[in-house]
Amino acid sequence: MGKIEWAMWANEQALASGLILLTGGIVGVAGQFRGWQFAAYAIAAGAFVCLLEYPRSKRTKGTSVERTGQYCFTVCVKSFGPLTRNYYVRAFLHAALSVPAGFLLATVLGCVCLGIASIIYLAAAIRGEHWEPILPKKEIARKPDDSMKNPPQNPPPRPPPETRRKRVDDLEGAAYDNPIPVDE
Amino acid sequence: MGNWIINHGLTSFILVVWMGINIFLFVWFYLLYDLGDDYYYTRHLLGSALAWARAPAAVLNFNCMLILLPVCRNLLSLLRGSFMCCGRTMRKQLDKNISFHKLVAYMIALMTAVHLIAHLLNVEWYNNSRRGGYDNLSMALSNLEDTENTTYLNPIRKTDVDAQQTPTYFVFTTIAGLTGIIITLALILIITSSMEVIRRSYFEVFWYTHHLFVIFFIGLVIHGTGFIVRGQRTTIPPYNYTLCKDRIEEWGQIPQCPLPQFEGGPAQTWRWVIGPMILYLCERLLRFIRYMQTVQYRKIVMHPSKVLELQLVRDGFKMDVGQYIFLNCPAISPLEWHPFTMTSAPEEDFFSVHIRSAGDWTDRLIDIMQHLPEGAQGPKMGVDGPFGTASEDVFDYEVSMLVGAGIGITPFASILKSIWYKFKTSNPKLRTRKIYFYWLCRETHAFEWFADLLQVLEREMEERGMGDFLTYKLYLTGWDQSHATHACVHFDEETDVVTGLKQKTHYGRPVWDKEFEEVRKENPSSVVGTFLCGPVVLGKVLEKKCAKFSDVDPRKTRFYFNKENF
């Protein structure tokens, strides 16, 4: 289990927990359960966790696979800087978010799942992992080849002035016209 | 269209049958609980949420039974062997076992969600009934206790717990509730660690977490033993609920309305899952026995680019072309089994695998082998298999086009060797007279051993004057300027600079139209079989080309695309 990046699994678990919290909350509110306020909280918390966890982090080793359409979420999450980059913050955030959901049966499963995600994030943080945004690679401007760098310094060699004179007796042989008259 | 039916027909049929059984079970049990007389009073408390909880439970029973079966790979091998008579299409279905396992898993997840939500509603409404939130009938029904002449209907008995916490308290103090939470948690952990990202990159996490299924099944069997959901016991004379439901005060006093008695049904799940659980136990036992069998190392070869070849011998091991085995090396990790396609032909008296450095386990294995003294036996190795449908179809065609992309050429090593052996011994099973082999790869790094194999074959064929039996083309799709320059400088040499083979390396992807046209021109009246081991996209391209270049006239060339999953 040497090379495992725990944050990858924590991310999947947290996203799933967010969805479960959301679902449990919706059931609680729609069914007008006793304590539906906790369910309403769970809807908000669940939605927040989903938005936070949707953008996958860039892996330290190997190719990172983005989730569909995650770019805008990446930009939002990136803007919070160290708060979202650090996994200790995430671990404690998820632990704190999960506590109120434990007071209603409909959301208790979401609470436990989010708690587990929090523990895995803690493990990731202890191992020094952090969240990196996956950004599209910028196009590197193509440098011209070396041989193109230095334009020629000298004019091209020209034949001696006698042959450069216009030969009126042989017009076909006069392959080129001098735009500037050549003094003899 | 005909091609689709041949390639996908049986799979679609099986899926339709499976879905049909699911729908049937759902609807049957839904109606049982929604219309049955004995659940009339239960429905009064719970509404249709009762049926919505029981119907997915039935579907869950069915699918939990099914989910263990596709992963019993030794059992599947046994089935495959006994179905030799029933045609390849049937046996090829057994190769899609993991896809089926995943499909059943999705169904279990979906039904768990429905079951869970329905029971959440049920518990909430039981709670409300108990606390008098509903009508008098509900109150009366909920007040029934388990005494000598009454039985309870509402499983929530304690009322001194805080009203909001009662559902949670109830769930955590009943067998059904507690096991339900535990197994749902296990299921969620199994699913999140089985996501493709985790599975492909951190296989160990996936493998070890997946073993939570043991807890899942134990919990599942215990889950229904609580007799919580109760229906009304039939009495003599039969209870007339239409009359009695409005006469609550007279229950027990008038002859038509005795006190209603309720009882829960026995647990059903064990009946469904006990068979597959035993089969799976046998499967793990068989894997263990196979693992204990001695495997001898015949030869250990380190190829360039960190490719390890192991030639192994085991008593009673019989293989077919294109099959794969699972290897386990306790010195590296006692619990991990990893699959490898075999690269030896069945005609050889050993079996071999070529292992590339592709992760923790392979790296450790290569490391151990590199530090072995000359001629010593390697570490203890367990071998499970062989598995997979044999690709015998390859021998049936007069002309074969074999396309291998990247790591997909591995099974072709086995196939090419086998074809050559069969040809040398004039095996009547071999109908192939001409092979076109296309090898596509980004770079030859890690495939030099295959180039060596082709060189050996090329040499042997020249010796026998059979130079045109095998035509192979290598396409380097990852070329750059330096490759091109190098090739330009050496273009007039006899052998190729990259592979050392007589046939020159092509750069870039093949132009399939040209290739198919060439094959058609050289074989004007044959049936050509095309086999691919590579990416799905390429498969689609080849399928289209086969259709395009096939002639309706049976006397002219016809191409058949075989969708093989080596």
Automatic annotation (TrEMBL), chain A:
GO CC, alphabetical? NADPH oxidase complex
Show the ranges annotated as biased composition (Basic and acidic residues).
139-148, 161-170
Keyword Transport appears in the UniProt entry: yes
Q: Which GO terms describe its molecular function?
A: metal ion binding; oxidoreductase activity
Q: Provide this UniProt record's keywords sorted from A to Z.
A: Cell membrane, Electron transport, Heme, Iron, Membrane, Metal-binding, NADP, Oxidoreductase, Transmembrane, Transmembrane helix, Transport
Q: What is its main location?
A: membrane
Membrane-crossing residue ranges in chain numbering: 12-30, 36-54, 91-124
Region (Disordered): which ranges? 139-184
- InterPro entries, sorted: Cyt_b558_asu
Q: Where in the cell is it found?
A: Cell membrane
Role this protein plays: Subunit of NADPH oxidase complexes that is required for the NADPH oxidase activity that generates, in various cell types, superoxide from molecular oxygen utilizing NADPH as an electron donor. Subunit of the phagocyte NADPH oxidase complex that mediates the transfer of electrons from cytosolic NADPH to O2 to produce the superoxide anion (O2(-)). In the activated complex, electrons are first transferred from NADPH to flavin adenine dinucleotide (FAD) and subsequently transferred via two heme molecules to molecular oxygen, producing superoxide through an outer-sphere reaction.
**Quaternary assembly:** Component of the phagocyte NADPH oxidase core complex/cytochrome b558 complex, composed of CYBB (heavy chain (beta)) and CYBA (light chain (alpha)). Component of the phagocyte NADPH oxidase complex composed of an obligatory core heterodimer formed by the membrane proteins CYBA and CYBB and the cytosolic regulatory subunits NCF1/p47-phox, NCF2/p67-phox, NCF4/p40-phox and the small GTPase RAC1 or RAC2. Interacts with NCF1 (via SH3 domain). Interacts with SH3PXD2A. Interacts with DUOX1, DUOX2 and TPO. Interacts with NOX4; this interaction mediates superoxide generation.
Q: Which family does it belong to?
A: Belongs to the p22phox family.
Q: What is this protein called?
A: Cytochrome b-245 light chain
Specify the species: Pagothenia borchgrevinki
Automatic annotation (TrEMBL), chain B:
What are the protein's GO molecular function terms? metal ion binding; oxidoreductase activity
InterPro entries, per the entry: Cyt_b245_heavy_chain, FAD-bd_8, FAD-bd_FR_type, Fe3_Rdtase_TM_dom, Fe_red_NAD-bd_6, FNR_nucleotide-bd, RBOH/FRE, Riboflavin_synthase-like_b-brl
Q: What are the record keywords, sorted?
A: Heme, Iron, Membrane, Metal-binding, Oxidoreductase, Transmembrane, Transmembrane helix
What this protein is called in its record is FAD-binding FR-type domain-containing protein
Q: Where is the FAD-binding FR-type domain?
A: 287-393
Q: How does it sit in the membrane?
A: Multi-pass membrane protein
* Domain of life according to the entry: Eukaryota
Q: Which Gene3D superfamilies match?
A: Nucleotide-binding domain of ferredoxin-NADP reductase (FNR) module (3.40.50.80), Translation factors (2.40.30.10)
Tell me yes or no: is Nucleotidyltransferase among this UniProt entry's keywords.
no
Q: Where in the cell is it found?
A: Membrane
One CC-aspect GO term: membrane
What organism does this protein naturally occur in? Pagothenia borchgrevinki (Bald rockcod)
The UniProt entry, under SUPFAM superfamilies, shows: Ferredoxin reductase-like, C-terminal NADP-linked domain (SSF52343), Riboflavin synthase domain-like (SSF63380)
What parts of the sequence cross the membrane?
12-33, 53-79, 100-121, 169-193, 205-229
What this protein catalyses is: NADPH + 2 O2 = 2 superoxide + NADP(+) + H(+)
